[in-house]
Each structure stands twice: as structure tokens, then as C-alpha cells.
Amino acid sequence: MTRKPFIAGNWKMNTSLEEAPALAGAMVEKVGSVEGVDLAVCPPFPYLASVGKALAGSKIALGAQDIFYENNGAYTGEISAAMLKDVGCAYVICGHSERRHVIGETDEMINRKVLKCVGDGLKPILCVGELLTERQADETIEVVSRQIHLGLEGVSSADLTDVTIAYEPVWAIGTGVTATPDQAQEVHAMIRRLLGEIYDDATARNVRIQYGGSVKPDNAGELLTQPDIDGALIGGASLKADDFAKIISAANNANNANKR
Ligand code: PEP
After folding, report:
1. pLDDT over threshold 70, residue 1
2. How many CA atoms lie within 13 A of 3 on its CB side?
3. What distance in angstroms lies between residue 26's CA and the mean position of ligand 1's atoms?
4. Which of 100, 125, 233 should be mutated for ligand 1, with most atoms under 8 A from CB?
5. Is the pTM of this model over 0.90?
6. What is the secondary structure of 40-71 as a DSSP string?
7. Do 222 and 201 form a contact (C-beta atoms < 8 A)?
8. Is residue 111 pLDDT above 90, yes or no?
9. For the purposes of burial, counting CB atoms within 10 Å of the CB of 83, is it exposed (0-12), middle (13-18) or buried (19 or more)?
10. Neighbouring residues of 16: CB distance < 8 A, sequence distance ≥ 6
11. Which is it for strands 208-212 and 231-234: parallel, antiparallel or unpaired?
12. Is pLDDT of 14 > 90?
């Protein structure tokens, strides 16, 4: 049994009308035909359509940075599953730490988003991770377990095949400080054990768990060769096609080393 590595780029609130399709085009040139790694980029909402056009025919899938759980109606500023599918999205980031801690999303809202994705044929990337204060208070396992339990409430084991978990310690996101491979592996293994308890071992073994938090070309190799790290969610380094390509190459090498 192998889990194919999955590398996704989260462009956050960056790029412009001109830059977004140009960046996607540069990525297509560098990694658009890679076979050994699943790939996605998640641009800002206004550029989804133009980035989707730039990615057409390549192996790089389109993803969104968020979704709303209602179908349509009086929800000013929100974006529905149908809208995301209209512009060609396959993946949706749910519960990114910036949405949890800057915007104030709760586990209950994030769970509704995950359920909406799996119910409507989109693949959620459920983000979990502890704050620095929580790690320092030895609460990492408790916090991440709670986020997993609540985030996946009502998700069947059949639907879990479409779910990716992204472990992103908040203190490592956009800070340049990354978790050590051992620190990351420890939490990834715990998440997989927990999925085994909630579902069953075979189901847990199939779930891809990405690491996120200041992944760069020079630390990607060590992280991605850890046994329970199945790819990465990349912020800053996904804004540079060269860096993104180097990380993908590290994932490909980790996969070829047949670590699992
Ligand atoms: C992220 O946005 O999910 C992320 C991990 O950002 P960065 O790679 O910049 O830390």
C-alpha cells in the first residue's frame, strides 16, 4: 500500500490579475507533467477561473482557499460549492489556521465545510495545528485530537478517501520556523493512530496527511521522507515556481525511495 504524495500551494491573499495566471503557467512548464506526486494550487477566489485556464491539460489541479456550507442565498461575501465546481476546483482548504485564528472560524463551521465538500464532490484539505502557547503547555495532542474529532464529525469512512489532513503547527506558518522532522512525524503518527481509532486501521493507512509550516526547498526532503508525512501544504514557497518545483522534486524522490 502506498500513499501518493500530495503537494498543494496556498497562495493566500497574494498575486494579481496578471501575476496569478503567469505563476500558474510557470508551474505548468516546470511540473505540469509530474506523475509521481498529486499537485494543486489554491489562488485567491477572483483568479480561480484564469488560473484554471492556465492549468488546463496539466497535472496540476485547482483548489480554493475556503468554501461556504450553504447552497445559495443571502450570504454576502461567501462562495458556494457549486461556484467552486463551476470554475473547475477539485480541492478546498478547510479550517486554515488563518481562518481559525484571524477570521474566527470554529470547529463546528469547519466541520460543516468539510461535510459540504465531501457531499458535493469536492476534496477537502482539513487543516489542524496547535498554537505556540498550546505546544509550550504540552497541549498539542489534545488540541489536534479535538480538531480532528470535531472536523471529521459525520464524515463516513468511504468519504474519508477524499479528505486530506494538513498538520500545520500555527507557530511554523509563515514564520520561517519549521517543525523538526521528528516533531512533525510524532504528530502525524498520532493523527494516523487517532484515525485508526475513529475509523479503522486500513482506512487510516490510506489517508494522506500533509505537513505545512515554512516548508522550503532546503527542508522539504527531510520532512517528506518521514513515514507518516505524505506531502505538504505550502504557503510562501508556492509563490515562486522554482521553489515549488524543487519541493515537488523532493516529494517525488521521497516517493521513489519507496519509504512506505
Ligand atoms: C500555509 O499557508 O498553509 C503555510 C504553511 O504557509 P507557509 O508555507 O508560508 O508557512
Report:
1. no
2. 27
3. 20
4. 233
5. yes
6. EEE--GGGHHHHHHHHTTSSEEEEES---SSS
7. no
8. yes
9. middle
10. none
11. parallel
12. yes
Q: Is 70 labeled as catalytic in the residue annotation?
A: no
**CATH 3.20.20.70 corresponds to the domain 6-256:** yes
Instruction: Confirm or reject: Cβ of 184 under 6 Å from ligand 1.
Output: no
Q: How far is the CA of 9 from the centre of ligand 1 (A)?
A: 8
Q: If you average pLDDT over residues 113-125, what whole number do you get?
A: 98
Lookup: cell for 172: 511554523
State CA 208 to chain mean position distance: 10
CA dist list (Å): 190 to 30, 87, 170, 230, 247: 35, 36, 17, 14, 25
Distance 238 CA to ligand 1 centre (A): 9
Residue in 78, 96, 188, 222 annotated catalytic? 96
Q: What pLDDT was estimated at residue 12? A: 98
DSSP-assigned letter for residue 169 = -
- Residue 2 predicted with pLDDT over 90: no
| 197 classed as catalytic | no
Would you say 237 and 216 are in contact if contact means Cβ atoms under 8 Å apart?
yes
Q: Residue 156 gets which letter from DSSP?
A: -
The pLDDT of residue 43: 98
Q: Is 182:211 a contact under the CB 8 Å cutoff? A: no
Q: Cell digits for 125?
A: 484539505
Ligand 1 center from residue 212 Cα (angstroms): 6
Ligand 1 and 215: CB distance under 6 A: yes
Domain segments of the chain: what residues?
6-256
